[in-house]
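FORM 7B - TANDEM STRUCTURE REPORT

SECTION 1: FIRST PROTEIN
SEQUENCE AND TOKENS:
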Amino acid sequence: MSQPQWRSGDITALITEFFEQDDLQQLALDVGIFLDCPLLVLDDAYRVVAHFCPVGFSDPLFRGAVSQGAITYEASAVISKSPALREGSVDMIKLGESPFRRRFAPLICTGVRLGYLVCVDTDGHLPKISAEIWRQIDLILAKQLFIETSRQDKPFETTEDILMHLLDGGFPSASYFRLRAVGTYLADFHPSAFALMDLTAYHSQYLGARHLKEEIGERFPDSHPFLYKGDVFLFLHRDSDVDLFTELAKEFDLKVIVSEAIRNLYDLPSLYRAAHDALDMIVGSNHHGENVCSVAQLRTPLLLKNLDSRDDLISPELRALARHDRKKGTQYCETLYFYLICSRSLKKTCDALFTHRNTVLYRIERIRDDFLIPLDDPERHAELLFGVAILLFQKEGAEFFLRTMPQTDDE
């Protein structure tokens, strides 16, 4: 058997092929033979646009991607969560369902990330290939992918492309979006909301008995799921969908955010921004083990997150109260917060804190008399509420604001 060309560093034939053929699939085949490894070329939506599979190679994950025309949600999540790939560098990753490590490399041309080259390391030889050879191969494939993308007759190949372009803020007007949606299901589509699903915990813990994509297709047949910026995006149509999501999230260890109501599809970009920020918040927190939350539940902490660094807006009296809590382990800030949101109802404050009336009354008197918090000045209440809420967000995070207030009658 002849020695692979990469060992001698002779890449001239590939460069000649690039200039003479103008065919991404043929180029992928030649690169696979040159590198002596199976490979996939993916576009920016993780779809397989070219591949090379040598005779006798057997890997269910690889063959599944080729037959489905796209990699799994799990593999897509690996790409989107990799710090190296996010920065434009290469990463070597072993996926749980395959015995082989894979080299993931972003394909970037003219500063635009067009997709990825995924090479399967079947025998450990890929790290032995020189960085210069890899650089030239990545550049050649990126250039060819750029050429084929640029000469498409239509700016959008699929409905997913239209939706991703919409979410990117790419449509200058609602009328232009409606024009592009003609001939797709979007032309007469009225979902009630959408969900964003983070796959980080699922990828690291789930054993792969079933693929999440298959489960979503079975449980939510009209949700039109697709991957956007590493998260699964899918539409909801009924209130009962949220209950089904709760079951799915617990079973697969997912974090899910349900958006505000969709009144017009053209509003998706603004709705997505809030949902994405909310998903980041619950993924990064440890709140009560909740798997599914809504943007509505997180409005308060989302607002506070934007004020988190503005200690200068908090009065000296409130900062002194917070310092006392930290030093002595008291709960004056928490008591003040509930006292204000309960319209200074002592009974509701006691119920919210699960604390005896005398204890709460003592705290309120100390807050007013010892820390000089102006509880009797209604004009200061909004300032006090914002200030103490920021302090509690800094100390305990979003989970504090997910507590449910008991429903009680007025005093």
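SECTION 2: SECOND PROTEIN
SEQUENCE AND TOKENS:
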Amino acid sequence: MNTLKKYLKGDPAIWGVALVLSVISILSVYSTTGSLAFRYKGGNTEAYLIERVVFVLGGLGIMFFLQHVRYTLFSRLSQILLLFSVPLLLLTLFLGSDINDAQRWLRIPGIGLSFQTSDLAKVALVTYVASFLSNRQDQTDDYTKTLIPVLLWIGVVCLLIFPANFSTAAMLFGICFMLMFVARIPLKQLMIILLLGVVLLSLTAAIIYFFPDALPRGATWKNRIFGFLGDNADANYQADQAKMAIANGGLFGTGPANNPNKYFLPQSYSDFIYAMIIGEYGLFGGLVVMVSYLILLYRCVRIASKTKFAFAALLSLGLGILIVVQAFINMAVAVNLFPVTGQPLPMVSMGGTGTLFTALTFGMLLSISRSIEEKGTEVQPETEKEVENATT
């Protein structure tokens, strides 16, 4: 135990959650990628297992590195990453790879990998909003210096994500809205934003209903919503297969790799992996995953309550909620409590670069918790010089 404490810094519960989810990911991805292996790897079922292990180890390596970095460095980096994210999102809109009828991925030249640019934008925006609001704590009433500047960045990023990924844009806006509330932006200003959001959402819903082809994925969104409501059985095929996978598992599960629905459930290794976890490991397996994310949320709230500085509190809350909300959306879709959204299960679903970005988030949380635990190392990035010198 002392040896682990020597090398693994920060909140041990966050490390525990990451390790549990990593093990579940390796087992579940290996179990559900058999059909992919026969389609693309010539029947080599170990190919995806090796690939998954490599990315999981890479993610844990990122966490190990970031736990030693002082969290104040993230404040300055967020500005750079946000400026970098905007052109990447634009490139994705016009030149992105179309996978599963969604243009969300940008291929990295030379190495054959593609990644969702929204993954980078999510982390960059949440970190920037936390940094910006923490530095405007004495100006929260002045909407010209606080609300409007931060809202412009939130609007730009969310609007660029929206055409290909409505659920991510809505989720990201909601998290940033929560950060503004926690940062004590006046309630009157927040209510105006909320009212505008409701109006825009209603307008979008009307366009999707009456003119679905007016938006790039309008017809898909309409089919999914009506499928969820039971008015379009063909569009609800994924949800039906997920329910059958869960039903076949029963209370104790069919056991690893023994649930036959993995061959019929689309995205059983990604968007619907939670249905396969319940199907193969039963109610216990599903609860382990759910409780793991709840523990992560609790530890993030605890970190926020223990820190002296606004940036650390806002960042830990923002990043923690970012992971947990995405996880619960994925789980809600898998058990048919929510329309299909295409949100993967963080740190569990197959997807190499997605795993690395989630590990980046975990590493940032570890950095914050380590700074709080080690007396004399927690500082607030009040000046650019402090941020530039924020190294171990």
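SECTION 3: OBSERVATIONS ON SECOND PROTEIN
The chain has 15 helices and three strands.
Strands lie at 97-99, 102-107, 114-116.

SECTION 4: SIGNATURE
Preparer initials: ____
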